[in-house]
Specification:
By secondary structure, this protein is of the alpha/beta class. It is built from 7 helices and 13 strands. The strands form 2 sheets. Strands 6, 7, 8, 9, 10, 11, 12 and 13 form an 8-stranded parallel beta sheet that branches. A 5-stranded mixed beta sheet has the order 1-3-4-5-2. Helix 2 runs parallel beside helix 3. It is elongated, with a radius of gyration of 20 Å. The model has no long low-confidence stretch (mean pLDDT 92).
Length: 250
């Protein structure tokens, strides 16, 4: 029987009796229809998970008695950072959800010239909170006990400056080198492949000046297959390929 997993955005500890957040209570009661005494798994995103038992507190909410901690991790040995040009509503949600399931460690929404969506400061904060909730839900489903880091939306220049020291790949359907060639060149140079930063443009792609900015920041232009993929397809297909070639998918 499939375990019910719930993300609780507070530090958990064995032996605690915690009150579940309102949004979790709504999910437990209205969607899952769990009753008093139900066994669930809770995780706080810091690693590992806890066995727990629900205790219905009536109209006031739902409590959970925290049991033993289980040091279970399902993280990939390959650290992938996704710099994703912000796409329209459901497409961006889809990227966040599936990238989380595929084991991406960090997601950076990037504002570029051709982004259809333009975010002011207040709206950007709301979207980030929404994406964090999407990622938490994906972790509940896929078994991850650590949430990916999701930054506030950044300009391309800021995102490139903040990119980790890693193999940096810019997806470009007209690039001369392939993704596999870039990975093999890194390994042939004697550098173990532990970290990759992937830059994917929005629906309209990156402008030429933006591509040049990324190249100056140490990104290598690579192509992935013979076809031009939509932004959400390109990101997720490439992440899956990276996990197959150097991560935890086999």
């Amino acid at each position: 029987m499939r375990q019910i997993r719930l993300h609780i955005p507070q530090a958990l500890q064995s032996g605690q009796l915690v009150e579940l957040p309102t949004e979790v209570v709504r999910h437990v009661r209205q969607v899952l229809r769990l009753r008093d005494g139900a066994e669930v798994v809770l995780f706080d995103g810091r690693g590992g998970e806890y066995a727990a038992q629900l205790q219905d507190a009536g109209r006031a909410g739902v409590l959970a008695r925290i049991g033993e901690h289980r040091a279970i991790e399902r993280e990939s040995p390959l650290s992938i950072t996704l710099l994703q040009g912000v796409a329209r509503g459901e497409r961006m949600d889809f990227v966040v959800q599936k990238a989380t399931e595929l084991g991406v460690q960090r997601i950076v929404p990037v504002m570029t010239a051709r982004c259809v969506v333009q975010l002011g400061a207040e709206r950007a904060d709301r979207r980030r909170e929404h994406w964090l909730a999407v990622a938490a839900s994906a972790c509940e489903q896929c078994g991850r006990n650590r949430l990916p880091l999701i930054s506030e939306p950044l300009t391309l220049a800021a995102a490139c400056d903040a990119a980790p020291d890693s193999l940096r790949c810019l997806l470009d359907p007209e690039a001369g080198s392939t993704l596999r060639e870039a990975l093999e060149a890194r390994i042939d140079d004697g550098h173990p492949l532990r970290s990759v930063t992937l830059l994917v443009g929005p629906e309209g792609g990156l402008e030429q000046g933006e591509q040049q900015l990324a190249l100056r920041a140490g990104f290598s232009a690579v192509r992935f297959g013979p076809r031009v993929l939509r932004t959400e397809t390109a990101a997720l297909a490439t992440i899956a390929a990276l996990q197959c070639l150097a991560g935890d998918l086999s």
